[in-house]
Amino acid sequence: MTAFRLARLLLHLFEGLLTCALVFPLLDAAGRQARVKRWSARMLEVCGVRLRLAPAGDTRIMPHALVVSNHVSWLDIFVINALQPCRFVAKSDIRGWPLIGWLCEKAGTIFIARGSVRDVRRIYRNLVTSLHDGEHVAFFPEGTTAAQGRLLPFHANLFEAAIEAKVPVQPCALRYLDRQGEWHPAADFVGDMTFAQSVFAILRAPGIEAQLTLLPFIAAEPAWDRRALANAAHAAIGRALDAPGQPL
Fold it and tell me: Residues 63-76: pLDDT tens digits?
């Protein structure tokens, strides 16, 4: 079964490469988004992951928003894109991942170098421009993946983009469950685990359900700064996940 799933995954990735190279240049923004949405949904299916929207909140990401979520796995990008394609901000390490790194880049992912203040400023300006242009922009404010059941502090820098662009923040709570409704251990991508190890763990795992909860949007109050906005998003996601964690 694992070998069969791996073969399907490689074929799906190859299809994505061809689409990005040959089809994307012929499409407008709406056409590319539609392709990304379908391809991401199919990616989850190939990996044996079923997407379910939790009953809390709305069933669509509001237009013109900065989307933030807790970060568990490399699957997170595809879970959100299967609902609403977004321009993601991701660590630059992902660009080096086989096939997926290139696909993420072609899908509009903005890569950021760890610890680079200059890079944060460059990314920030790109985010504001994208939000002004009406795009959905998403990032994981923990800055790295965390084991399920734990929520790391949020980095506040990029929340400033929502304040300057005058758009709300759309918080999302993401979890991966087994058939008994418990945290699925195969989804965790933490510690010294490599990307390849994570892929094989997911392909071997039975019955992963990706549960995505869209929480009420957070409008930046006139007196709020980026830290207050980040703390409000952290509190909302933490309550939805019932996960212990400290804000900034």
Answer: 778 999 999 999 99
Task: Please tell me the distance from the alpha carbon of residue 38 to that of residue 33, in angstroms, as a whole number.
Answer: 9
Tell me how far CA of residue 92 lies from CA of 12, 43, 153, 160, in angstroms: 23, 22, 20, 21
Is residue 187 a contact partner of residue 73, using CB atoms and an 8 Å limit? yes
Question: pLDDT for 32-41, tens place per residue?
Answer: 999 999 999 9
What are the start-end ranges of the E strands in 77-148? 87-91, 110-112, 137-139
What CATH number does the domain located at 2-241 have? 3.40.1010.10
Average pLDDT for the chain: 86
Q: How buried is residue 182: exposed, middle or buried, by Cβ count under 10 Å (0-12/13-18/19+)?
A: exposed
Tokens matching residue 173: 């709570």
What are the CA-CA distances from residue 45 to residues 38, 106, 190, 198, 216 (Å)? Answer: 11, 21, 23, 16, 28
* Spatial CA neighbour of 6 closest among 221, 225, 220, 196: 196
pLDDT level of residue 20 (50, 70, 90 thresholds): confident
Beta strands in 178-216 (DSSP E): 208-214
Query: How far is CA 9 from its chain centroid?
Result: 19
d(CA 121, CA 148): 30
Q: Which of 151, 191, 147, 198 minimizes the C-alpha distance to 172?
A: 151
Residue 189 tokens read as 């991508």
Go through the chain and tell me how many residues it has. 248
